[in-house]
TrEMBL record:
The organism's taxonomic lineage, starting at the top: Bacteria, Pseudomonadati, Pseudomonadota, Alphaproteobacteria, Hyphomicrobiales
InterPro entries named in the record: Anti-sigma_ChrR, Anti_sigma_zinc_sf, ChrR-like_cupin_dom, RmlC-like_jellyroll, RmlC_Cupin_sf, Znf_put
Stored Pfam families: Cupin_7 (PF12973), zf-HC2 (PF13490)
Domain (ChrR-like cupin) ranges: 106-196
Residue ranges of the TM segments: none
Organism: Rhodopseudomonas palustris
Putative zinc-finger domain boundaries: 10-39
Protein's recorded name: Cupin domain-containing protein
Length: 217
């Protein structure tokens, strides 16, 4: 089945412009590896960006802008945003995510964070948003929570039911401080996803708050 839930224009444009943080770029690039539709959108965003630069009058480049562009180029940069690579057939975790994890699904060392929930924190030095792999046993309910910032989720295996949507392999959910939700893993298969969060989640309810230090998300 093809991907139904895509990355937003905002996210894709920041990715194409290279202004997105590395953790979020990793999620976008991994989605692109699974989604021909967004690879085409990304190519278009790249082309438009290039044309905009070419269309700038020469005068604009000579006073003010050019030195600032050069300063940007000289600035020591963080790691370049990950580049999507199309997956080969029987690999569950596509590149570039697989390289960040050091292998495909079978080689991963999960840490239990709550009953029926396991995670792997992906260490990205100097990056504030945090990337983690999450594995929910099928049917597991995630405690209701809202967000202090943006949360991106990319489903890699199994399914995740969030509000009225059922997300499957390749699908992306993007939530912000306005969203309060209580997703749960679909039946049949464990749900494995890549999640990128800007700031700690705010859990609702006493039990959920008690669980938060355990979940560390
Ligand atoms: Zn897409």
């Amino acid at each position: 089945m093809s991907v139904q839930f895509h990355v937003s224009d905002d996210l894709l444009l920041s990715y194409a412009a290279g202004t997105l943080d590395e953790a979020s770029s990793l999620l976008v690039a991994t989605h692109l590896a699974l989604c021909p539709h967004c690879r085409a959108r990304n190519a278009a965003a790249d082309a438009v960006g290039g044309q905009l630069l070419e269309a700038l009058p020469a005068a604009d480049l000579s006073d003010g802008l050019m030195p600032s562009v050069m300063a940007q180029l000289r600035r020591p940069t963080a790691a370049p945003p990950p580049v999507p690579v199309r997956p080969t057939s029987d690999i569950v975790i596509p590149e570039p995510l697989r390289s960040y994890l050091g292998g495909d699904l079978a080689s991963l060392r999960w840490k239990r964070v709550a009953p029926r929930v396991q995670q792997i924190v992906i260490d990205i030095p100097g990056c504030r948003p945090q990337a983690r792999m999450l594995r929910f046993q099928c049917g597991t309910q995630v405690p209701a929570h809202s967000h202090a910032g943006r949360e991106l989720t990319l489903v890699l295996s199994g399914s995740l039911c969030d509000r009225d949507a059922v997300l499957q392999r390749g699908d992306v959910a993007e939530t912000d401080e306005q969203t309060e939700h209580q997703p749960h893993a679909g039946p049949g298969e464990d749900c494995i996803c890549l999640a990128v969060t800007d700031a700690p989640l705010r859990f609702k309810g006493v039990l959920a708050r008690l669980m938060q230090p355990l979940l560390r998300i």
